[in-house]
Request: fold
Amino acid sequence: MVAAGLAAEVSARASARATARVYWRLLRAGFRRQSTYRLAAAGGFVANATFGLLKVAVLFATVRAAGGELAGYDVGRMNTYIWISQGMLGSINYTGKTEIAVRVKDGSIAVDFLRPLDVQAAEITTEVGRALFALIPRGIPTVLIGVIIGMTAPNSPAAYPLGALSLLLGIVLSAATVYLVGVCGFWLVENRGVQICYMVVSGFLAGLFVPIPLFPSYLRIAAYATPFPSMMMFPVDVLSGRADLAGSLGRLAVQLAWLVAVGAIGQAMTRAGRRQLEVQGG
Amino acid sequence: MAEAAGAAPGAAVGAAPGAAVGAAPGAAVGAAPGAAVGLGARLRPYRVVLAARARSQTSYRANFALDLVSSMLAAVVELGEIWVLFRSVTHLGGLEFHQILLVFGLADLAFSLADVAFGHCDELAVYLRAGTLDVFYLRPQPLLAQLVTGDITLRRLARAAAGLVVLAAGLALNDIPWGVTSVGLLALALASGIAMFAALFVWAAGAQFFLVDGAEMTNAFVYGGRYAATQPASVWSRPLKALFGFAVPMAFCGFLPTLRLLGRPGPDWFPTWLGWCGPLAALWAWGMALAFWRWGVRHYQGGGG
Reply:
């Protein structure tokens, strides 16, 4: 009796380890796959830098016109915000386009359902792997531009580990949220409308073009009612030291809560969609 | 027909008559009216394809409705980004919000109209990667013409409508001396703006032949260009003025015509009279675009399929 219980526990632990290994491999595969597109990475960096310079122009002009300080941003802090947010551009999905959407539409998702893996977890893990790689060719050089122009560093060194954690949560949350857009295709077949809707609102509400503290209060509340600030604005706040320790922990908690909620919705949609799925053709 | 007959003896007997019957009427019908009718007949394939594309987009109704709404929302959000900044300041780059409406309206309307026709050029990278571009070479139409008419995105018209509303609001809210010159200036600015954005799409497509999966590099100039065109160029640093003022002449879409229309003095490098020079900027943009396109097409060696 005891031996049987022990054996079951051992085998459960072994299978948990095997599962972890599979997802670790998926993460690395996503990372490696992105690393083969060198020119794409270079192109992404050019895009980050060009948009960054345009943001510098218009946002610096705004700060200066407001008398050198606006909602807690001076030129140095604005610069920090601009280049960290630009550096994350390759790792946070603002387009709403995913591979899973294509697979749902063309029916190859049926094959994914046959695999002994959770479809949602596998897709998110691969996406996160790619997003993490993008930080190397696109993230770091972009932030370096900001350093050259003159960024304000955070006061406390705790901002760096907390910021790294917040960044990781933001990346996972982005992959988990954009997954929801993809699986809408189970019901819509053509999900481009949802995807474009996502593309339009996600960047704005994440604070990509204008930092959220500059929003009028009702827009700020509306933004905070969505998961988008948790993808970009919060990691930037924590990394740049705009949020103090309590503020940083609070933001991390909100990010985690959104991740749990979005993950649960994704799981439910995947299950419902599996019953809904109708593969056309033969 | 002669070839088919020549090849037939080895093959089954049934094949040769089948080929002959199929080919003969097709050839006769295709050749005779084609020579007589000319332009109308030559444009017909494009018309049919475009009509089919338009129908196919409206067939998924829920999706199409959402498509239209979000396209319009895109323009609203982009204007919102600028409006948010104006809540904290009264002037940005020497312009007030109602003056920015003119810059934004002109640039956004021009972009969306160019996007309806030429936005499909973005897909070239996908065709190149999949090797499906080779099919285009088999059809008796110019490559660029096929690419442009390959798709027409109706939802982008919704965005153009939003741009038009903003422009109309800008025209109503500003004190503009109406006359032949101001109307002419507006028409000129809009026409050259559309031409410039169209050229940008073609330029980017030409560059795809070399970049293949580096589409983001050209996106920096196409979509970065759209973002730049809606800004007051007076806030730009010198490198940006060189890049988006002259190399990719985005300031000529909205900002410079607006300065001329309102008769306001321009910042460094941008004298007010440049507002009339949109056509020159468009010519320059198209020169670059066609050069890149030709260069790219000559470089292309097929998908290997």
Notes: Chain B touches chain A through 47 residues (CB under 8 Å). The radius of gyration of chain B is 24 Å. Chain B has 14 helices and no strands. Confidence is low (pLDDT under 50) at residues 1-35 of chain B.
